[in-house]
Write a structure and sequence with these properties.
single chain; alpha+beta; five-stranded antiparallel beta sheet; four-stranded antiparallel beta sheet; 9 strands
């Protein structure tokens, strides 16, 4: 019974991981003078109709801007303590390619693209 449970759990994780599409970012994410890491502490995924944005540090306020063909369709300012996991409903967005831009108060700016089928 335990073997069946472990196998089914691994199978479900594999299936759910395939539904997540990671958004690669370009840019630089400066976080005040305490930041010594060159890696980007922000990750984002699209899973079905939900965009999830995660911050590993929660040190920066974040302005999220989603646009398509140069037209801003969504913009939100999120305080630093709430940036651990941000979810945005994309169910009303039409199919196409979208840009997501993330900015912080120290001049950090990341840009990524994602596709909605």
């Amino acid at each position: 019974m335990c073997v069946l449970f472990v196998f089914s759990s691994l199978l479900l994780q594999s299936v759910s991981a395939e539904g997540n599409r990671s958004i690669p970012f370009c840019g630089k994410w400066d976080e005040d003078t305490r930041s010594i890491s060159s890696s980007i502490p922000i990750s984002a995924f699209v899973n079905e109709d939900v965009l999830s944005i995660h911050s590993n540090t929660k040190r920066s306020d974040m302005i999220i801007c989603i646009s398509k063909d140069g037209t801003v369709l969504y913009e939100e300012a999120v305080p630093a303590p709430e940036t651990g996991c941000i979810t945005i409903d994309l169910s009303e967005f039409e199919p196409g390619t979208y840009s997501v831009e993330l900015k912080n108060q120290w001049g950090g700016c990341l840009l990524g693209k994602f596709l909605i089928n």
